[in-house]
Amino acid sequence: MSYPNYDIIIVGTGPAGLGAAFHLVEHSPSLSILMVDREKICSGGLLNDCKQNYTFPIGFDVENWSKEEAERLLPLVEKWLQPVIKEKQNIEIYRRRAERLDTSLLDVRQAHVGTDRSLVLIRRLRDELSRRGVQFLLEREVTDVFDNASGTGIVISGTETVGGGKVIVAPGRKGFSFLQQVMERMGISYIDNVVDVGIRIETKHENYPIVNDYYDPKFLFPNNVRTFCTNSGHARVVLERYQGFTLVNGHALSEHQSGNNLVNFALLKTIGLKDPVRSGQQMAVFLARLANEIGGGMPLMQRVGDFRMGKRSSGDTFNEDLYDFPPSCQVTPGDLGLAVPAKIMRHLWEALKRLDTIVPGILHPSTIMYYPEIKMYANKPTFLDRHFRVSANVYMAGDGAGTSRGITGAWASGIRVSEGIQQRTDVDL
Ligand SMILES: Cc1cc2nc3c(=O)[nH]c(=O)nc-3n(C[C@H](O)[C@H](O)[C@H](O)COP(=O)(O)OP(=O)(O)OC[C@H]3O[C@@H](n4cnc5c(N)ncnc54)[C@H](O)[C@@H]3O)c2cc1C
Questions:
Q1: Residue 426 — pLDDT band, cuts 50, 70, 90?
Q2: Pocket of ligand 1 (CB under 6 A)
Q3: Of all protein residues, whose CA lies closest to atom 4 belonging to ligand 1?
């Protein structure tokens, strides 16, 4: 099958791709745009939970973003996503407690859609783009990107070629390996030296009541540990499957759904790797496979009560006595101590103890720690300009390219790419 040439091809229909597309259709409506995705619907956080953070630096990569640049673009992100910002209360009380423990609590403007409602949002966005002439090619995997003397474009499923004036590659975290392959083939240098490794905590709502005041509280602890992606209401821990290993993540349904009395959030430690170990991806895969191996092919979970006593959790004892709520995600009861590197576990545990002083209750014996939750963000290409250009006509943006770490940052990254393209469009296309 052959496709016509397009002015712009966007690989990935996640927030980075959408941010680029909306900005282009608004400011350069005559451009022909094709968006390609290997899924039927974008597969990242826009679909899962869709918590939106509108405060720098949440969701932004600080090496690529200044506060001013992010604050210039965040209102444009808001314009299309139309968030309902959540109220917060009693922040000062928690903040004072946190400061006494060398911990900060960020005050973040947030909105939450919920997994059951996100499809409505995605459909609205896609319909709007279709109405403005953007073409979609879904359930088609892009296998290569080229930009050479014979032209610029993409290869689909290894055989079909589509030409484009400019190509925006925004394949998200799951496109990590694809992006690396493209960069290696195109001779684009990149670094991949940062990884977040951590656990997902699940507890009863009453053990973490701060969520009544602040939907997704962002605590920054010593040793580069932070809370991330808190879910409550109808909240569940979920599996995130990659080729050869499985991680955990979390999400929640919208406020319209009845609650399940559970809260979950990630506790992550950021690790900057130095010589001779330099690949965050390799380290993540290694750690995840080790944990999955110990868990018989699945992630692990352990109750805080067992962890404190230095004994593994087991299926038989998992829901007895004080361990009085069933896990929302059935993975393998076991011993995190066997799987999490000691230094990481120590720093996570120290952070949990601080958190238990700020919000007493989180270290209840029934609280579950799931592992591994790992974020492989940083596959950072060497950019040729501030619009995330990597070759004459190819741009890379979003979580996969390390320009963002969340929906709003990814969307803003897409806008920044589009601004770069617009500056060159009159001359090039
Ligand atoms: C389960 C889960 C929950 C999350 N919850 C939140 C949240 O609540 N709030 C938040 O801010 N962030 C959340 N995130 C993170 C969020 O998903 C990302 O920060 C954001 O989506 C990044 O946007 P992106 O456009 O770079 O990538 P993505 O949203 O991941 O989109 C990339 C798209 O590219 C497609 N793709 C990849 N490779 C190819 C290929 N070779 N060919 C064709 N298409 C391809 C994928 O199918 C995908 O649809 C969550 C992530 C996960 C996995």
A1: low
A2: 11-17, 36-39, 42-46, 48-51, 53, 59, 141-142, 170-175, 178, 229, 240, 249, 251, 398-400, 404-407, 410
A3: 45
What would the pLDDT profile of 317-341 be if each residue is shown by its tens digit?
666 667 789 999 999 999 999 999 9
Q: How far apart are CA 101 and CA 213, in angstroms?
A: 20
Identify residue 38 by its one-letter amino acid code: R
**Is 221:354 a contact under the CB 8 Å cutoff?**
yes
- CB-CB contact of 399 with 44 (8 Å): yes
Q: Which residue ranges make up each domain of the chain?
A: 6-87+112-191+379-423, 194-375
DSSP H/E element including 218: strand 218-221
Q: What is the CA angle 238-225-414, rounded to 5?
A: 65
DSSP secondary structure code for residue 295 in this structure: T
Whole-number Å distance, alpha carbon 47 to ligand 1 midpoint, is 8
Could you identify the residue written with the tokens 């390799």? 282
Q: pLDDT of 378-396, one tens digit each?
A: 578 999 999 999 999 999 9
Using alpha carbons only, give the angle 268, 274, 278 rounded to the nearest 5 degrees.
80
Is 6-87+112-191+379-423 in CATH node 3.40.50.150? Answer: no
Task: Give yes or no for residue 298 having a pLDDT over 50.
Answer: yes
Of the residues 18, 23, 49, 176, which should be mutated to test ligand 1's pocket, given the most ligand atoms within 8 Å of the CB? 49
Q: Rounded to two decimals, what is the model's pTM?
A: 0.89
SS3 263: strand
Task: Tell how far the Cα of 294 is from the centroid of ligand 1, in angstroms.
Answer: 28
Position in ligand 1 atom list of the atom nearest CA 406: 19
